[in-house]
Design a protein that fits this description.
single chain; 288 residues; Butyryl-Coa Dehydrogenase, subunit A, domain 1; Butyryl-CoA Dehydrogenase, subunit A, domain 2; 2 domains; two-stranded antiparallel sheet; 24% strand
Length: 288
């Protein structure tokens, strides 16, 4: 059955259920008028119907696979992600200072829901970047923001979130990944993470991993967890993707569905990373 974006339903929710009119009365979102949000939903609906929905079956028929350490994505997914990125949909709620639209999260959530209904396997890629963007906006240093946020928002680089380990699933506090200082403001991050959605792809020039790990002497449990930004390629002096970092995709998880979305086992072997947020504040920073 072809996908049809439920625009009328979302506009009804905006007007009569969630109180978007009150959000529009704030200084921050005063430009998010009814006409603007309706136009945004309309354009997002077209993307979902015409670009993303046709990729749903392609993701299951020609799933992602690992080749020589690089994830090869499903047929059409690179073009689909390019359409998402060029439309500005990754940075809908991101800070305009770094290229985002600065729209209310309510609008972003509606668009994300439509994209998920059209093709969840592909939509998880921009969703992971959105989660990283929000964490960096709130907790990263200005230097990290200047390098990473414009590229994540534009879709040139993509983001992931690394929590789960083989022995630490719902009990995240049991994780054993570790980080040690290099003495220059960077850290050596080591450990294995599993179930990492879009842990790699063949269309972004860099994949930026947010990794939960434990510093030496950190207390047990979640209070001892810190957050680190660990890119696949280390930025050079110009802020572009440079030399490869010491991390790799070990394998892809075998799943009953969502075959177009590569769910990776990631290995970090003293990979270079940067602390995001305070020591021991990893859980709060990751889930901002």
């Amino acid at each position: 059955m072809p996908y049809r974006a439920p625009l009328d339903e979302y506009n009804f929710l905006f007007d009569h259920v969630v109180g978007l009119d009150k959000v529009r009365q704030t200084d921050r979102f005063e430009d998010a008028s009814d006409d603007l949000t309706r136009a945004i939903l309309t354009e997002a609906g077209k993307l979902c119907e015409e670009v993303m929905a046709p990729l749903q079956r392609a993701g299951d028929m020609t799933p992602s696979y690992l080749e020589n350490g690089v994830v090869r994505t499903a047929d059409g997914y690179a073009d689909g992600f390019k359409a998402i990125a060029e439309g500005g949909w990754i940075g809908m709620s991101a800070n305009p200072e770094f290229g985002g639209m600065g729209l209310p999260m309510t609008v972003t959530t509606a668009v994300n829901e439509m994209m998920s209904a059209a093709c969840l396997s592909l939509q998880l890629a921009p969703l992971m970047s959105q989660g990283q963007i929000e964490a960096l906006e709130h907790h990263a240093s200005d230097a990290i923001k200047d390098i990473y946020l414009p590229k994540l928002i534009s879709g040139e680089w993509t983001g992931t979130m690394n929590l789960t380990e083989p022995q630490a699933g719902s009990d995240v506090g049991a994780l054993s990944s570790k980080a040690e200082e290099n003495g220059d403001g960077t850290y050596r991050v080591s450990g294995q993470k599993i179930y990492i959605s879009w842990g790699d792809n063949d269309f972004a020039s860099n994949i930026c991993h947010l990794v939960l790990a434990r510093l030496p002497g950190a207390p047990a449990g979640t209070k001892g967890i810190s957050l680190f930004l660990v890119p696949k390629y280390l930025p050079d002096e110009n802020g572009e993707a440079g030399v490869a970092n010491s991390l790799k995709v070990v394998s892809l998880e075998h799943k009953m569905g969502l075959h177009g979305s590569p769910t990776c086992v990631m290995q970090y072997d003293e990979a270079k990373g940067w602390l995001v947020g305070p020591e021991g504040g990893g859980m709060a920073a990751m889930f901002t």
